[in-house]
Amino acid sequence: MGFAVAALNDMLDNAAIDTVSLHTGNPGTSGASNEVASASGYARQSATFPSASGGTLTMSNAPSFSVPATTVAYVGFWAGSTFIGSDAVTSEVFGAPGSYTLTAATLSITP
Length: 111
Description:
The protein is built from 1 helix and 8 strands; from the N terminus they run αββββββββ. The protein has 111 residues and is mainly beta. The longest helix is centred in the N-terminal third of the chain and has 10 residues, at 5-14.
């Protein structure tokens, strides 16, 4: 049995994602692994997700991060201090400190 779209929307909305993080590798199940080093001015950024529609949650802002010389390979999703999950992004290598902008994020639940 599949879930009704309204139920999927409720599940996504109840995740209450409000922050995103960057990771050099897989963040694992707790989000504690491979987060970009904060010594360089890096910090998690606020993310805005309006109400889910059609079983999909789409970020409406474009958070920008200061990053050291590193590789960005994953983004993590947080509700306060609770890790919700992650997704791989196209790896971007920074040979020197720079700026990384997360221009889009769309989350869905596969029933």
